Task: inverse folding
């Protein structure tokens, strides 16, 4: 096995494969967390099909599509930062990590603008305008705020995580022969991207 | 030096190209899913959107998350996790399909 061979030669007690597997196990708990919410979504979308379609018209497809492009690109830059590091180009790796964080912040700014417009239109959980609408629309926006909100929280955690990794990379604690932490942070970031891949069509594209 | 040699023999040499290619495909699929959303296929609309989302997820998992170069253990773990999610989805729909 690759790791055994590496350890024997490097004489360092380190199990990169185990670390990555641990990260994957954590990601499975995230899958269940969001998976449960998607199940709730599925049930209510079946129950209130027409109202979900009407409610989804309120969402801005262009902003949603822009955020999809931003997240997919940030997924690319984080994976490129690992390639750059393995090619011993530390500066480029740090650059890609910083680009990833900038894109992530761009995503959050976009989300802030989007929520702000909605709140100004009086659409937020518990608002009189929303409660005046049908049950289906109330549930749609409830799910919209909870699911995109929880996703945005993951984006924030992702930024913090990558920031720590950038610090480690600059200090050399993450380097071309020891980059498993950057890989794990990358895995987390890709999961955030994966969830958005499903959130986007299910909320923005059902008009 | 020796350890590097071993590593490069076992793991695939890192290259930028494949990831940029995958990103381009992901972008194209996003374009397709937005364009197709305007067309009404009836019940197939949601199926189309979810199929494209699944293809995108597959690409992210395989290339960006490096499942392609991981050992069988990783692939089995992910397959089992996804299988259990699919079981809960199908059990749910067996309950709600009368709606």
Result:
């Amino acid at each position: 096995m690759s790791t055994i061979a590496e350890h024997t030669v490097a004489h360092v007690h380190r199990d990169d494969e185990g670390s990555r597997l641990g990260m994957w196990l954590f990601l499975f708990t995230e899958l269940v967390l969001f998976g449960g919410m998607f199940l709730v979504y599925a049930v209510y979308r079946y129950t209130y099909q027409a109202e979900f379609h009407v409610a989804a018209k309120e969402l801005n497809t262009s902003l949603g599509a822009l955020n999809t492009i931003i997240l997919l690109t940030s997924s690319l830059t984080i994976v490129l930062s690992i390639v750059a590091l393995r090619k011993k180009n530390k500066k480029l790796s740090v650059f890609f990590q910083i680009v990833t964080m900038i894109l992530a912040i761009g995503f959050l700014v976009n989300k802030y603008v989007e929520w702000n417009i909605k709140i100004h239109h009086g659409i937020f959980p518990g608002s009189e305008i929303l409660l005046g609408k049908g049950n289906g629309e109330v549930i749609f926006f409830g799910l919209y705020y909870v699911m995109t909100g929880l996703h945005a929280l993951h984006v924030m955690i992702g930024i913090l995580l990558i920031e720590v990794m950038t610090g480690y990379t600059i200090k050399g604690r993450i380097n071309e022969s020891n980059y498993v932490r950057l890989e794990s942070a990358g895995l987390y970031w890709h999961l955030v991207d994966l969830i958005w891949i499903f959130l986007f069509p299910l909320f923005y594209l059902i008009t | 030096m020796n350890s590097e040699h071993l590593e490069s023999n076992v793991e695939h040499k890192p290259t930028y190209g494949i990831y940029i290619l995958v990103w381009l495909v992901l972008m194209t699929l996003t374009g397709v899913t937005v364009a197709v959303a305007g067309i009404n296929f009836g019940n197939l609309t949601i199926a189309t959107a979810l199929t494209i989302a699944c293809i995108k997820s597959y690409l992210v998992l395989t290339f960006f998350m490096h499942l392609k170069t991981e050992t069988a253990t990783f692939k089995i773990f992910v397959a089992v996790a996804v299988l259990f999610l699919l079981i809960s989805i199908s059990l749910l729909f067996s309950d709600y399909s009368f709606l």
